[in-house]
Amino acid sequence: MPRPAPLAPLTRLPLLGRYALLVFGLFLYGLSLRLMLDARVGLAPWEAFHLGVTHHLPLSIGMVSVLTGVLIVTFTALRLRERIGPGTVINVVLIGVFLDLLGPLVPDPATVLGRWVQFVLGVALLGFATGTYVAAGLGAGPRDGLILGLSRRTGWDVARVRTGIELVVLALGWLLGGLVGWGTLVFALGSGPAMGLGMALYGLRRGAKRETAPVPAPAAR
Question: Which of 80, 103, 161, 172 has the most CB atoms in a 10 Å sphere around its CB?
């Protein structure tokens, strides 16, 4: 029996449909982050940093995410001269908003098994969410733009820049008291394959050219 073909990229949808796809993808992304956060077994580097900041400032993790995104977009646009798409601005705001709004709705597992199941589900959902918002083709996430801009300025490849940034962010998150644990390692190993599968569902390939938005590196948004 032949395997089903992947969905085609959706940049030919009407503009309103693409915005709806973007918002849906960002909602799923916020949900995936909330699942991992409430599992309490470790976090991705940026979320560990955001959580660490909340220990020192009277801000929610979603608000820290928004403010961090604003600073990154401002630096990327003014200093690195990277183009900012409408999806970039929406990304900055909505992921943090969804992260906070979903807090009361996401379970807080009582058992170790339940926490790991929820965390792995969050990693898998993040992959599908990435494919969904990238397929809208309305602009890269703020952290994607930062990586691409620094890569262009330094001449280093994207993987090297991404690794350096995430190591620095992870170290800052750990120093600030963010949640760094075995889940952080699982995320590092699993997020790339999950994102690859998520984008493949939309007929996308990592590294392939897009009409308006580059495909993000793993763990960057």
Answer: 161
**Per-residue model confidence as pLDDT tens digits over 155-200:** 988 888 988 999 999 999 999 999 999 999 999 999 889 888 888 8
Q: Which residue has the tokens 């979603």?
A: 62
CA atoms lying within 13 Å on the CB side of residue 156: 14
pLDDT single digits (tens) 11-38: 567 889 999 999 999 999 999 999 999 9
Q: How far is CA 1 from CA 4, 7, 73, 197, in A?
A: 9, 18, 47, 21
Q: Which residues contact 56 (CB under 8 A, 6 or more apart)?
A: 176, 177
What 3-state DSSP class applies to 5?
coil
The span from the CA of 203 to the CA of 135, in Å, is 9
Q: What's the chain's length in residues?
A: 221
What are the DSSP calls for 164-179, one per residue? HHHHHHHHHHHHTT--
